[in-house]
């Protein structure tokens, strides 16, 4: 799993920290390192930018995987600097922000917008493939999720807006249903495309979703 | 007694429908003028539903106006803006107000419209909406509850005969027929050869096909549509014909082209009728019909 993020415009961060000082910056060694939005290099850049702004930086760290339970230990290691901190500037994805918030009651300001869960097709190119809907139909759609890959999330075939295998919202985007059609044809399983899919159950789990395993 | 739209569809007559767009605002003057102009010249009038994802006066409001002025409306319903509760509720309202025809569409994507940050709903798709109508006719709603008073609609859908590749569109077309679509109004067609091939396929199914005729008002507009409107391909010879029209007469040429196509479709009994979309130039629809010899 890779949580794909985009760093917020610095002006937005500036606005959120206007009344805050002595910032402690936390990066993440996993997803935001890979997307180059919150790894060590970006943490150090952020530190410089904040200091240029006249803010004090009480310390910084890059937690190996900010969303997991080891974050507590990493925060303890930095307890002294954290005690002096007026707030946390968090550079992991929103999952990391939530994890960090379990261990400290200072204000936490996220430096990222968390966009989607995706895979890296080619270096630096990330693609959303799963909407985490709780009702997987990949077995019937040649391994391509129309709920995610079709702009409208259609489950019964393409809309009339597609042409030459592209989507009506963006000529650069592939039409999911053309891809599904081509792959099913290759597999000699086109009958699957004719199957009627009933309306999606949007309440597979009632939000907010939790599970005890 | 006047025939219902369903009866007209099944009468063997060459069916003619057209469409009107409700206003952006509360001034209904132009819409009412178009209704008056067209209501007796066509078998039914579609009222578009926030066409191209542009917020407007609602389709059902336009349909009520068509009814009030003695016309036969076709309620266009997209799945873009309403979830299944709202869609069903609107069908109930439509039925009680005498609206008997519904065209089920997925709906254009939100980002192509004028409220680009809005949520696209798409709780249902066009196939599911067709099935919902048939379910409600049986006296049940989608939650499995009994309705106190059912609905009855002549339900239709759309198809894009010139999309490439065509096969996925045909699969969807079949699903729509199975879901209960009685008629199809196609996306604009210009290439009669491609369309005839589509019709060979479509003839296997028990649904009436009305060919979509979009008025070409200039060579520039035709070129733009070919390049930017999904599923529309205007052949070069038509673009040249418009470009070669004397200055100021491109629109007349476009009317002539549309009329000629309609006449051919009817003469060669290629399809069951036409759906004329004049997109902002509704006042010339009667001229198109005259040009077609209708």
CATH architecture title of chain B: Alpha-Beta Barrel
Q: Report the biggest beta sheet of chain A as strand number plus sense, adding barrel if it closes.
A: 4 strands, parallel
Strands of chain B, total number: 8
Strand order of the largest sheet of chain B: 1-2-3-4-5-6-7-8
Q: Rounded to an integer, what's the Rg of chain B over CA atoms?
A: 18 Å
Number of helical stretches of at least 4 residues of chain A: 9
What value does the Rg of chain A take, in angstroms? 22 Å
Could you give the order of the helices and strands of chain A? EHEHHEHHEHEEEHEEHH
Number of helices of chain B: 11
What is this entry, summarized?
The complex is a heterodimer of chains A (213) and B (294). Chain A is an alpha/beta fold and 213 residues long. Chain A has nine helices and nine strands.
Keywords, please?
heterodimer; A: 213 residues; Rossmann fold; 2 domains; four-stranded parallel sheet; three-stranded antiparallel sheet; 9 strands; B: 294 residues; alpha/beta; TIM Barrel; eight-stranded parallel beta barrel
